[in-house]
Amino acid sequence: MKKSLFAVAAMTAVAGAAQAQSSVTVYGILDMGYSGSNQRLVTAAGQIVKTTTSAFTQSQEQTSRLGFKGTEDLGGGASAFFTVEIGLTPMATNASGSGTTKDAFQNTSQNGGSAIDNRQSFVGLKKNGIGQFAFGRQYTPIFNAGAASDASQYANVAGNVIYQGSAVGTASDSGMGAASVNGAFTNRANSALTAQSDSFAGFRVSGMYAMANQNQTMNPYGAQGAANTNTSAGGATNWNGWGVGADYTWNKLFATVAYQSFNTQYTENVGYSSNYLNLGSGASAGQPISGGVLWGQTALQDKQTYAAATYDFGILKAYAQWVGRKVTNNAGAASTLGETVNRTAQQIGVRSYITPTIEAWASAGNGKYKGAPLSATVTAPNVNFVGYQLGGNYYLSKRTNLYAIYGQTGSSSATPNTVGSGNTLSQYSLGMRHTF
To answer: Phi, psi (5° rounding) for residue 144?
Structure first.
């Protein structure tokens, strides 16, 4: 009898060890509620356009998502891991969504990478005491640094001058303006190799390299986007980048810095043929038009820098952030060669549990945006902007909370009739978030 018991115990232990060697976790966020906004936008012609929105919406505190992540113990302190995470649009008819948000300068998707809204997909190896590396679509060093040092934890509501997650109020904000989505930094990189060290004496470093697996020249006389045969199989087209990051933790202090650089290059013009119709108004509307150039040769260099620190005082946590972005055009016509767009912003914030079930945060910041000339007769816009955000959570349980968020931004310029100046935007959101 004792032998039988020992045998059963041994088999149970072996089975438990085998199961512990590999594990898969399903996780996600569903965030839905109500959002409204009031905005005042000044067009390039000086016209004032006022818009009010009111709608049941989604992903205001955090973007809804569904993910799968797993690890496998390879022995000797080594393990393999993977993550597959897709964005969800629970208010849309297609629950898996289709991401359309793009970086205004790089023309790369910052929201969804495919028809199923690919937020992240990567696989890698880890060695305890050394670090890890991974291949796939992943967050950039600045995105990771910001996620660890943003008071709102990347809420998708107006008012945050560092993380611009709101899609409201972007109509007249060219490029990296006050409210442009993804205007401050690049969130994700395709075809990326990342590496991260373990923490040593509080220090940790990371790096990223995103390869242009496909480089193609564009035919200016063929159909729109027609490519010559100078191609190679792969992922990202005519785009690559790299980045580094470092952070330090000492007691209740956390400090982080990150830098990343991206290049977008088309050696020929991107054009369209005469098969396309004039979609404008007038006598020629609906008539075939001659071939032309959508945009000329492109060689954009995009440099982004981030620095932040947090300190936990116990009753509240304080945040300080700075971000800078510089985009330079090194190709094309002489009139646009060397054009530079600059954006810098700084922000402070606090976050605290007022009671065990009530959490609140606040942030305020300002910045400056300097754009490229729109034409030979229009001066480059030089615009100042400010923003603030207030938010709170009421936790019904560990995984479910109600939230209320309000944010506001505004822009101004010392030069009259400057494009992007005079805009104001306020947005408020009420909703429920459930994590699983």
So the answer is: -65, -40
